[in-house]
Amino acid sequence: MESxxxxxxxxPSCTTPPPVNATAFANATTKPFxxxxxxxxxxxxxxxxxxxxxxxxxxxxxxxxLVIAILISNxxxxxxxxxxxxxxxxxxxxFGVMTPLSLINLYHWHSKDVWSAIKFSYGVxxxxxxxxxxxxxxxxxxxxxxxxxxxxxxxxxxxxxLSVLVFCLTFAYSAAKVVGGLPNFEKxxxxxxxxxxxxxxICNVCxxxxxxxxxxxxxxxxxxxxxxxxxxxxxxxxxxxxxxxxPVALFPFEDYYAPDVFRCSVQPVGFAFLNISSxxxxxxxxxxxxxxxxxxxxxxxxxxxxxxxxxxxxxxxAKTPAA
Length: 323
Prior knowledge:
About 75% of the residues lie in helices and about 0% in strands.
């Protein structure tokens, strides 16, 4: 398995040089670059992944741009995790911008140089998303469970240093992905996604448990700030489960699938859930805001009124006894 779709977009993971006397025959019979190369009978998984990547372009890019604009507007009173959120949004925008180039190259250009750039963007998505989300979970974990230590580590230099480390790991992984031919390279991504998934689950569960326990004796209501933090962590946990559980559940069992089934069906579907996080993550951030800047107030009020009306209808239906 070569991570994030590079194994099934018409490019083999490793290439063996042909014999000298067969070069002319190979040049004459070289198949054109095709998105469905070797998967002509099992195209559903690939189309599913490409469809979700198109959603990233239509919805994800504007949503991430709005997130960055909001973070910039709040720079005078920033949250400690804002730098991680900004880096994550920037990387998701980069990945979304590469999708149209990927589609054009797959069906029209057939350029190996463009394909190398696309493989680099897949490496960025493979690494940056899980690592920056892990940084956000680490930040919230220390803030809730170790508040004294958190107050000593609130300076922005610590988060900048951690972000630089993530960028270095991301670019190193992406460059190695473009070069290719490294032994057992696909296991790097499997190990990374398993480790980050486990870490994020542990962090979020510990945070939720600590916030639930902090109500105090005889108190039924949680403090408003802690309640907001509880909802934030709960949203992050939902993102982690929805986007990262499918590849975590599928990819370690690669040997149990037929090679073509895994490459053409299982792998693209697993990465589709990972790739759509470029849209889900900014939308979850925007939903958590009390007020969304840069949007007309009428649109926000209309959305809120529709949401409240729908919730009221569901509540009344639930309270109405069945006939």
